[in-house]
Amino acid sequence: MERLDQQSRMESREPLGNFASVEVSRFFVERPGGIRLEVYAQGRGDLLVMLPSLGRGAVDLEAIATPLAAAGFRVLRPEPRGNGASVGPLEGKTLHDWAADIAAVVESQNAGPAFIVGHAHGNWIARTLASDRPDLVRALLLLAGSAGKVPADHSGVPISDEIRAVIERCGDTSLSDAMRLQSLQQVFFAPGNDARAWLDGWNTRLLTLQTQAQKRTPVDDFFAGGRAPILNLQAEHDVIAPQRFARVLSDALGERVTNVTIRNAAHALLPEQPQAVVAALLDYLARFR
What we know:
The protein is 31% helix and 19% strand. By secondary structure, the protein is α/β, with parallel strands linked by helices. It has one domain: Rossmann fold, CATH 3.40.50. It has a nine-stranded mixed sheet, with helices on both faces. Strand 6, helix 4 (121-132) and strand 7 form a beta-alpha-beta unit.
């Protein structure tokens, strides 16, 4: 494995504590069909795999991965196919294809079922994995995740075309920073939080292709998340996964789902309230130890 300089990768972020001893290493997982997945790894212990948001990469999860590794977990952050050094066919795919990549990462560890953390779009891949391969998933920890459905008595859709258009502007790096900042503040960050944290880190092509994969995948393919226990960690000011829909999963799936709300955060969540997210994750994970 290749060792990386943890301090240099963290210096642009507000630290959560002194975790200089938690080394970051990198390895690759090969799959048939020309698929090669880049994976960042930290820590020892129960396996925990983290999946980033739409059109974004593993670096988004670093600030919470480090304290989780320090708490006694083997934390893996695979780069999505099409981002970083992860490669493979991208056209005409569904969420099942990206979920199969994560299944290969879990199986590469020979460590039994894993805790799967999915942020935003990553929550759909996490639930697809749990539906396709329940044997590989110990529990789902969903961060700012849209359920994909709305209550039966609601006539709308979870994410409107208007909101989707704003999301696409956020990741369109051909637009001006000013326009993208306005879009980021509108859909990803709570009032008063600094949206500049997400001006960088976008992969516009990946965003487009993952959005297409969402649309090709029937919601019922992944909605239930297999049979895994679920932490549904919602953000107070989320307009993409709004609070009025926060109980869709628990109403449908019952006691498998634990709902928690993070204050002063929106859909970006991780750059807004990393300490609160880590505390909520560790509190939930404690029940499995």
